[in-house]
UniProtKB/TrEMBL annotation, chain A:
It holds the Pfam family GerE. The lineage of its organism: Bacteria, Pseudomonadati, Pseudomonadota, Alphaproteobacteria, Hyphomicrobiales. Residues 8-121 form the Response regulatory domain. The modification 4-aspartylphosphate is found at D57. One of its GO terms (molecular function) is DNA binding. It comes from the Bacteria. Residues 137-202 form the HTH luxR-type domain. CDD domains: LuxR_C_like, REC_FixJ. GO terms for biological process: phosphorelay signal transduction system; regulation of DNA-templated transcription. This is LuxR family two component transcriptional regulator. InterPro entries: CheY-like_superfamily, Sig_transdc_resp-reg_receiver, Tscrpt_reg_LuxR_C, WH-like_DNA-bd_sf. Keywords: DNA-binding, Phosphoprotein, Transcription, Transcription regulation, Two-component regulatory system.
TrEMBL record, chain B:
It comes from the Bacteria. This is histidine kinase. The keyword Glycoprotein does not apply. Pfam families: HATPase_c, PAS_3. Residues 179-251, 307-376, 432-509 form the PAS domain. The keyword Mitochondrion does not apply. The lineage of its organism: Bacteria, Pseudomonadati, Pseudomonadota, Alphaproteobacteria, Hyphomicrobiales. It catalyses: ATP + protein L-histidine = ADP + protein N-phospho-L-histidine. InterPro entries: HATPase_C_sf, HATPase_dom, His_kinase_dom, HisK_dim/P_dom, HisK_dim/P_sf, PAC, PAS, PAS-assoc_C. GO terms for molecular function: phosphorelay sensor kinase activity. It comes from Phyllobacterium bourgognense. Residues 254-306, 379-431, 510-564 form the PAC domain.
Length: 212, 798
C-alpha cells in the first residue's frame, strides 16, 4: 500500500459469486479490481500500466486457466495466482513450473490471498522495473553508430584494441575512438560494467583474444 | 361125328388164339387203368381180362400148329358171305335135287340145316329142322324097302355131308359172331378208341368211342384215304404220318403220342398203339390199334417236365452257388454258377475239394466240415474262396444234410454266398467302431450313454478313470436308473437339483445342460459341465442318451481369479469415481464457500476501516449470506440425490408389482441364466403402497439376488420370488441360492456393500422406503445356502 503507483488485480472466474466475493475483499483492501467471466474477456480488455496480477480459476468455460497461462508465457504478463476447487499436487507443480505465484485451493483464507497478491504485485513491480531498465539499455544500444555497434561485441569478447582494429580493418587509433564513444554512450564505467550491460542485452561473445 | 368135333375144336382154338392176341393189347390198357385209381370202372374189367390172357396164351400156344387150318377170326367174320357157302350150298342143292329125283327125303336134311342156318330166329329154325328130320326119317323108313340103287345112298351121303358142312360153317359162324360180339363188347367198353385197319391202312373197324369222339364212322374215315390222320393236330401230323408210314413199311408196331381233334374242335392228347397182324407167310394182314386219351397224363407230364426244367434253369441261372455233396462230404454237383465263380471244372473240385479255399482257411473249414459230417448237423461258416480271377473273396458257406427216416445222410445241399462286400463293410464298420472307441477313449472329454430309463450303458475310459468307477458299479439295482450314478458321483449339495433335472429330461427328452460338482477318483470334487441329448428312433421314441462331461474346474478357478482381479479393478475404479464424485461435490460446495469467506472478510475490512464503511459492509454481508444459502442449497441437492422422496400411496396388489418387476428385469434374468420361479399367493389381500417405490425395492432386491448367484460357482442359479399373506401382513420373499451373507443386518447400513460395483446405499434406501410404508425389510439365511430378503407391508386397512 505504500506504493503510489497504480496497482490492479484481474480476477477471472466463471462463478459470479466468487468474482464478486474476491472483488469485494480486494476493494476493502483498497486494491483496484477488474473481473472477467472468461479468459477471452480478459484477453480482449485493455490493460492499464502499473503493477498488476491475475487471480485465475483453473476451470474456465472456454479457455482453461492453464491454457491461458501457456498463451501468456511468451510475452510479459502479470504474475498468476491460481485458485481452484479441486486442485492436486501434479496440477500445482505444473502451474508453479510455468511461473505461477501461488496455487490456492478454494476456499482459501483471506490472508493467504493477501500474501499471494502482495507477492505477485511485488514480483510484477520488479519485473516492470527490470523491463524499464532493459528498455533504457536498449535505447542506449540504439543510440550507437554502426561502427560503434561493431566494436561493442569485439570489446565485450575481450579483444585487444589492436586485434579489434585488425578485425574491422581500421587503425588502432580509430578503434580506440569508437570504443571511447561507445563506452560513453552505453554509460559503462568500466569494461566489467559494459560486459554486464551486454549480457542484459544478450549480446553474444563472438570472438576470442587468442584467436578461433 | 368125330370130324365135326375136331373141326369145332379147331375153330374154337383159332378163335381163342385171335381173341387172346387182342387181349394182350388190352392188358396194356388194363395196366394203365390199374395205375389210375380214379378209373374204378376200368379196373373192374381187369380181372376177367387178365384171366382170359392166361387162358388164351395157353390155348394160343397149343394151337399154333392147328392155327393155319381154320381161317382167322377176322377173315372168317369177313368171309361170312354167300361165296363161302357157295360150294356147300351147291352140294346141298345137288343132294336135294337127287333126293327129289329118287324121291328120297334126304334133301330135306339139307333144307333142315339150311333152315336152321338162315332162319335168324333160333328156336323157330330148330323147330322147323326137327320137323323136317322127323318127316325125312318117316319117309326113309316107310320107303326103305322100295329100291336099293346106288343113287340113294349117294344122295343120302351127299346130303348128309352138305348138312354137316353147313352145320360146321354155321357153328363157326355162330361162334365167331358170339366171340366177335364179346370182343366188340370188350373193345367198345375199353377206355380208348379201338380201331382196325387192313394192310393198306383203310379202317375196317372203329369203335363207337371213335365215332363219338371224332364224329366219323369207318366209311367216312376211309373216304379221306388217310387212316384218320386228318383228325390229328396239324402240328403233330407230319410226325405221326412218318411213324405210321414207317410202321406200314417195316411191319413194326406203331406208337405215337399226338393230339386228336374232337368233334367239337378241341384237341386232346392221345397215345396211339397199333400192332400189325400177319398171315401165315408173314404178310401184314392189317393193324389193330387203340388210341387212349392221355391228355391229363400228358399235360401232367408236360407240367412236371416244365417245372423240372424251370427248377433246373433256376438252379443253373441263380446267381447263387449251389452244390450237393455225398453223405461223406465229397462234392457231387456244383451248379454252373459255382463253377463259374470258382473258375474250376467239376473234375478239379472233385479231385481237391478244398483247393479253392484260401490256404489260411483250409484247416478250419476241413475240421468244421468233418465235424458236421460226423454229427450230421448243418454247416455254416465264413471263409475265403478262390475267385475265378485268382483273388480270394469271402464267402458264407452253408450246408444242410438231407436225412433219411433212419437218420442217415442222403445228400448234402449247400450254398456259397459271396459276402466280400458285406465282409468289407463289416471290416470297415469294425475298424470304424474301433476308431470311434479309440477316439472316445482318447478325447479329453468324458462321454457317457444311458438308456431311456437312465441306466448308464457306456462310460468312456477317461470317465471311468476320472471317476474311479466302473460301469457295473453304477448300474445298481435293476430299474433304478441314474440314481446310483448321481449318488455316487455328484456332490451331495448338487445331487437333488441334478436328480430333478435328470428326471425331468428323461421324462420329456429335452436336452440336459447342467453344471455340478463331480466326485473324482481321489474323492475331490470338481465342477463339471454335463450336457446330454437324447437320440430318438424312427418312431420318435427315446432310444439312447448321449452325454459329455467336461471338467470346468480350472476354468471356474480361473473365473474366480478373474473375478477377483475384476473386483479389485472395480474397487480402484470405484475409488476413482468416488473421488470424482467427491471432487464434483467439493466444487459445488467450494464455490459458495469462497464467496462466503471473501464477502465476510470484506465485511470485516469495511467495518475495520476508518471511518467504517457501513454500506459496503452491509452489501458484503448480504452477499456472504446469499453464498451461504447457496451452499445449503447444494447440500440439500446432494441429499436429494441419495434420498427417495415419498410418492403417493394407493391401494394395490403386490403380486402385480412382483410380476411387473420380473417383466422389467426379464432380459437381465434371461441373460444371467437364473432359474426364476415365481410363487404368488392367488388371493393376496390389497395393500397401500407407492407402486413406483415398491417396484424400485423389488428391482433392487432381485438385482441383488442375481448378483449373488452370479458370483457363486454353483451350477444352479436359483431365484425364487414368493408372496404370502402371513401374520396379518403381506410378505414378499426374494430368495437366491448364492453365496449367502455374513451379517444380515450390517448390509442395511449406508455405504456398506458386499458387491464391488455397488455404492452400498441401495439396501439402505430400500429399507427407508419400506419404513415409510410402515413395513419391515430384513434378510435371513436361506435353507438353500443363499439369502432371503423379505419385506412385509401392512394391509391397506391399517
Amino acid at each position: 500500500m505504500s506504493h503510489e503507483d497504480h496497482k490492479a488485480v484481474f480476477v477471472i472466474d466463471d462463478d459470479k459469486r466468487v468474482r464478486d466475493g474476491i472483488s469485494e475483499l480486494l476493494e476493502s483492501w483498497g486494491i483496484d479490481v477488474k473481473t472477467f467471466a472468461s479468459a477471452r474477456e480478459y484477453l480482449d480488455a485493455p490493460k492499464a500500466q502499473g503493477p498488476s496480477c491475475l487471480v485465475l480459476d483453473v476451470r474456465l468455460p472456454d479457455i482453461g486457466g492453464f491454457e491461458l497461462q501457456a498463451q501468456l508465457a511468451s510475452q510479459p504478463h502479470p504474475p498468476i495466482i491460481f485458485i481452484t476447487g479441486h486442485g492436486d499436487i501434479p496440477m500445482t507443480v505444473r502451474a508453479m513450473k510455468l511461473g505461477a505465484v501461488d496455487f490456492l485451493p478454494k476456499p482459501f483464507k483471506k490472508h493467504e490471498l493477501r500474501v499471494a497478491i502482495e507477492a505477485a504485485l511485488e514480483r510484477d513491480r520488479d519485473a516492470l522495473r527490470e523491463r524499464s531498465s532493459l528498455h533504457e539499455l536498449q535505447n542506449r544500444l540504439e543510440s550507437l553508430s554502426t561502427r560503434e555497434r561493431d566494436v561493442l561485441p569485439l570489446v565485450v569478447s575481450g579483444l585487444m584494441n589492436k586485434q579489434g582494429a585488425a578485425k574491422l580493418g581500421i587503425s588502432e587509433i580509430t578503434f580506440q575512438i569508437h570504443r571511447g564513444n561507445m563506452m560513453r554512450k552505453m554509460q559503462a564505467d568500466s569494461l566489467a560494467d559494459l560486459v554486464r550491460i551486454a549480457t542484459k542485452l544478450s549480446i553474444p561473445i563472438t570472438h576470442s583474444r587468442y584467436g578461433n | 361125328m368125330c370130324l365135326i368135333l375136331q373141326l369145332a375144336i379147331a375153330e374154337t382154338a383159332a378163335c381163342g388164339s385171335k381173341v387172346g392176341g387182342r387181349f394182350q393189347m388190352c392188358s396194356a390198357i388194363a395196366s394203365f387203368a390199374f395205375k389210375d385209381s380214379s378209373r374204378v370202372k376200368s379196373a373192374n374189367y381187369i380181372f376177367p381180362l387178365v384171366q382170359m390172357i392166361d387162358w388164351s396164351s395157353v390155348l394160343g400156344r397149343s394151337t399154333i400148329v392147328q392155327g393155319s387150318i381154320g381161317p382167322n377170326l377176322e377173315g372168317f367174320v369177313r368171309g361170312l358171305e354167300l361165296r363161302h357157302y357157295a360150294s356147300a350150298l351147291a352140294a346141298g342143292c345137288a343132294g336135294t335135287a337127287l333126293g327129289i329125283v329118287e324121291r328120297e327125303p334126304y334133301g330135306a336134311l339139307f333144307l333142315f340145316f339150311a333152315a336152321i342156318m338162315f332162319i335168324k330166329r333160333r328156336r323157330v329154325a330148330i323147330a322147323v329142322a326137327v320137323l323136317l328130320m322127323v318127316a325125312c326119317t318117316f319117309i326113309v323108313f316107310v320107303h326103305a324097302s322100295d329100291s336099293a340103287s346106288l343113287t340113294r345112298p349117294a344122295a343120302f351121303l351127299l346130303s348128309t355131308l352138305a348138312a354137316i358142312w353147313l352145320m360146321s360153317i354155321w357153328r363157326s359162324r355162330t361162334y365167331a359172331e358170339q366171340s366177335l360180339n364179346e370182343a366188340k363188347l370188350i373193345v367198345e367198353s375199353m377206355p380208348g378208341l379201338g380201331w382196325a385197319t387192313d394192310a393198306k391202312g383203310n379202317f375196317v373197324y372203329v369203335s363207337p368211342s371213335v365215332i363219338d369222339y371224332v364224329g366219323k364212322n369207318t366209311d367216312e374215315f376211309n373216304q379221306a384215304q388217310r387212316t384218320g390222320l386228318e383228325a390229328v393236330h396239324p402240328e403233330d401230323t407230319d410226325r405221326v404220318t412218318a411213324a405210321w408210314l414207317t410202321s406200314m413199311r417195316e411191319g413194326t408196331s406203331f406208337q405215337s403220342v399226338h393230339r386228336i381233334k374232337r368233334a367239337d374242335g378241341e384237341y386232346r392228347w392221345f397215345q396211339a398203339y397199333g400192332k400189325p397182324h400177319f398171315d401165315g407167310i408173314g404178310q401184314v394182314q392189317g393193324w389193330f390199334g387203340t388210341t387212349i386219351d392221355v391228355d391229363e397224363k400228358h399235360r401232367a407230364e408236360q407240367r412236371l417236365e416244365d417245372s423240372e426244367r424251370q427248377l433246373r434253369t433256376l438252379i443253373d441261372t441263380l446267381p447263387v452257388m449251389i452244390w450237393c455233396a455225398s453223405p461223406s462230404g465229397e462234392p457231387t454237383y456244383p451248379n454252373p454258377k459255382t463253377l463259374e465263380y470258382l473258375g474250376a471244372t467239376f473234375e478239379e473240385i472233385k479231385s481237391d475239394n478244398f483247393g479253392v479255399v484260401h490256404p489260411d482257411d483250409v484247416e478250419g473249414f476241413q475240421s468244421a466240415w468233418a465235424v458236421c459230417v460226423e454229427e450230421k448237423k448243418p454247416l455254416s461258416l465264413i471263409c475265403r474262396l478262390r475267385y475265378n480271377d485268382g483273388t480270394h473273396r469271402w464267402n458264407r458257406i452253408t450246408a444242410a444234410p438231407l436225412l433219411s427216416d433212419k437218420g442217415d445222410i442222403i445228400e448234402w445241399y449247400g450254398t456259397n454266398v459271396d459276402i466280400e462286400e458285406l465282409h468289407q463293410i463289416q471290416e470297415e464298420l469294425r475298424s470304424n467302431a474301433e476308431r470311434l472307441r479309440l477316439m472316445l477313449d482318447t478325447l479329453p472329454a468324458f462321454v457317457w450313454c444311458a438308456d431311456p430309463k437312465g441306466q448308464p450303458t457306456y462310460f468312456n475310459k477317461p470317465l471311468m478313470k476320472y471317476s474311479g468307477v466302473t460301469l457295473e458299479e453304477l448300474r445298481g439295482v435293476e430299474g433304478s436308473g441314474f440314481a446310483p450314478m448321481i449318488s455316487r458321483l455328484v456332490h451331495p449339495a448338487d445331487a437333488p437339483a441334478l436328480l430333478e433335472r435328470f428326471e425331468q429330461s428323461f421324462k420329456t427328452g429335452e436336452p440336459i445342460a447342467i453344471k455340478y460338482r463331480h466326485r473324482l477318483a481321489t474323492g475331490q470334487y470338481h465342477l463339471v459341465d454335463c450336457r446330454a441329448r437324447v437320440l430318438r428312433d424312427s418312431r420318435n421314441k427315446l432310444s439312447q442318451w448321449y452325454g459329455v462331461i467336461v471338467d470346468v474346474e480350472e476354468e471356474a478357478q480361473a473365473q474366480v481369479k478373474l473375478q477377483k482381479a475384476q473386483h479389485q479393478l472395480e474397487l480402484a475404479t470405484r475409488a476413482a469415481s468416488l473421488s470424482e464424485l467427491s471432487a464434483s461435490i467439493a466444487h459445488e460446495l467450494n464455490q459458495p464457500l469462497v464467496a462466503v469467506v471473501t464477502n465476510s472478510s470484506a465485511t470485516e475490512n469495511w467495518l475495520d476501516a476508518t471511518p467504517p464503511n457501513i454500506l459496503r459492509a452491509k452489501a458484503s454481508a448480504h452477499k456472504a449470506t446469499d453464498a451461504a444459502n447457496d451452499a445449503a442449497e447444494v447440500i440439500s441437492r446432494i441429499k436429494a440425490l441419495f434420498r427417495q422422496s415419498g410418492g403417493s400411496k394407493k391401494a394395490g396388489n403386490l403380486n402385480d408389482v412382483v410380476l411387473e418387476a420380473c417383466t422389467l428385469l426379464r432380459e437381465r434374468i434371461t441373460a444371467s441364466k437364473c432359474d426364476l420361479r415365481i410363487d404368488l399367493e392367488p388371493n393376496l389381500p390389497g395393500a397401500q403402497f407407492d407402486k413406483g417405490l415398491i417396484l424400485q425395492v423389488l428391482v433392487n432386491l432381485i438385482q441383488n439376488a442375481m448378483d449373488a448367484v452370479s458370483t457363486g460357482n454353483g451350477a444352479m442359479r436359483l431365484l425364487e420370488i414368493r408372496s404370502r399373506y402371513k401374520d396379518g401382513t403381506i410378505q414378499v420373499d426374494v430368495e437366491d441360492n448364492g453365496v449367502g451373507l455374513q451379517d444380515t443386518e450390517k448390509i442395511f447400513e449406508p455405504f456398506y456393500t458386499t458387491k464391488h460395483n455397488g455404492m452400498g446405499i441401495g439396501l439402505s434406501i430400500c429399507r427407508s422406503i419400506i419404513g415409510t410404508h410402515a413395513g419391515k425389510l430384513w434378510a435371513s439365511q436361506s435353507e438353500k445356502s443363499g439369502t432371503v430378503f423379505s419385506f412385509a407391508l401392512p394391509l391397506s386397512g391399517e
